[in-house]
Amino acid sequence: MFPMNIRQRWLALGRIPAVRTALFILGLLLMLVSPAAGILPGPGGIIVFGAGLGLTLKYSEWAKRKYVEFKRKHPKKGRWADWGMRRRSARRRETLRKQEEAALQRQDD
Predict the structure, then answer these.
(1) What's the CA gap between 92 and 49, in Å, rounded?
(2) What percent of the chain has pLDDT over 70?
(3) Top-confidence residue, 14 or 65
(4) Which residue pairs, CB below 8 angstroms and at least 24 apart, start in 49-53?
């Protein structure tokens, strides 16, 4: 049997319900603490909020549904949030959006 590397161990830990719950709660706490970190010089609050949002979205189906609702109501803000979290799906959608805009411009010309 092969020893597990760090990534495989982390993924295995993420499947344990108690760990998932703890990481979800940690994400919520980070989002709540981010305004206090924002007082410090530099972009600390944004980074702390982003880390908390990332943990929350990774480990909570409820948070994912709420995030999708938010993005549907506010597509421009949702694009910025996806861009900030460096999501692959956001890059794919942005590429498709630019291709559609280019196609529409070609039709107008």
Answers:
(1) 24
(2) 93
(3) 65
(4) 50/84, 50/85, 51/27, 52/26, 52/27, 52/28, 53/27, 53/81, 53/85
Give the Cα separation of 107 and 14 in Å (integer): 48
Taking the whole predicted model, whether its pTM rises above 0.70 is answered as no
Residues 6+ apart with CB under 8 A from 84: 50
Residues in the chain: 109
99 against 109, higher pLDDT: 99
pLDDT of residue 1: 54
Site of tokens 């603490």:
33
